[in-house]
Amino acid sequence: MIKDMFIEITKNKRRPFWLGLIVIMVVEIFWFYASMIRTQSLPNKTFILDQNYLLLMLMTVNGFFAPLFISILSSRIVAIDVDNKMLSVLRVNNQNNRQLYTAKLCLGGLIVLIYWGTQFGLVKYMSTCIHIVFTGHLFVITMVCLLIGLITTLVFQMSVSFIVKRQVFSILLGAVGSFIAMMTSGMLPQKIMRFVPMLYVSLLNPLVLKARIIEINQSALMNLFVVFFVGLGIFIFIEWYTNKSLEV
Fold first, then answer.
1. Torsion-angle region of residue 136: left (phi > 0), alpha (psi -120 to 50) or beta?
2. Which single residue of 92, 177, 207, 229 could bond 56 by disulfide (Cβ 3.0 to 4.6 Å)?
3. Cα distance between the two ends of the chain
4. What is the distance between the alpha carbons of residues 10 and 88, in angstroms, rounded to a whole number?
């Protein structure tokens, strides 16, 4: 598996789509930073600038950008084999569909971890800038929820990219997820979002806004179980599906 993952890194390390992913991350960072600074500078603040607001904004902004980021990441990692018809090269390296899917998922997971680490550093930096002190376990819970949401979204998008050969479909799903999250600010009914994997980052927000008051999401644990088991179910199915397929 390690060898297969290094092959994927070698195939993708010089491709131009990395620039697009960096641009998305930079725009997201500035969006989040500008939102927090603008709120801090308002003379009559609607919200108290505390850890609840900071973490709510972190999850909300990630709900906007993460689906698009992950859909582009997944589709481009898969597209190099689909578009360039590298079947003979893959056979020489003794890769089958299951190995190929798992290697690509591991590479995507590594990038998602870097993305998540960037979010971790960003929220810690912002808390220092505006003098917010984290208390209790809310910060840890939020970061765990964000990571699980990102990984599950990756599993879903990678599976779609791997099964549907037209990669534009996967990117379209991510764009639609980002658009819906942005238009609704992640406040669609949670019962609906549980059926839409592109919105799982928004769904796992442990904080909710009710009548301009930020509260703990009472359905957070249920949502976490739903997202975790949906992601696990998709992964097991695709591993089975690709294992029963013929060699690529």
1. left
2. 207
3. 16
4. 17
Averaged pLDDT, 10-21: 81
Distances (CA, A) of 78 to 11, 108, 155, 157, 167: 11, 10, 13, 11, 8
8 A C-beta contact, residue 93 and residue 239: no
Burial of 82 (0-12, 13-18, 19+ CB in 10 A): middle
- pLDDT at position 43: 65
The rounded distance, in Å, linking the Cα atoms of 37 and 240 is: 48
CA-closest candidate to residue 154, choices 187, 109, 185? 109
Going by the DSSP 8-state scheme, the letter that residue 210 receives in this structure is E
Report strand pairing: 207-210 vs 213-216: antiparallel
The pLDDT tens digits for 83-134 are 666 544 555 555 677 888 888 899 999 999 999 999 999 999 999 988 888 9
pTM of the model: 0.90
Q: What mean pLDDT comes out for the span 70-77?
A: 92
> DSSP alpha helices (H): ranges in 130-248?
138-163, 167-184, 190-193, 200-203, 220-243
Please report, rounded to a whole number, the percentage of residues in the chain having pLDDT higher than 90.
54
Q: Is 48 helix (H, G, I), strand (E, B) or coil?
A: coil
Q: Spell out the residues 6+ positions from residue 12 whose beta carbon is closer than 8 angstroms to its own.
A: 18, 76, 77, 80, 107
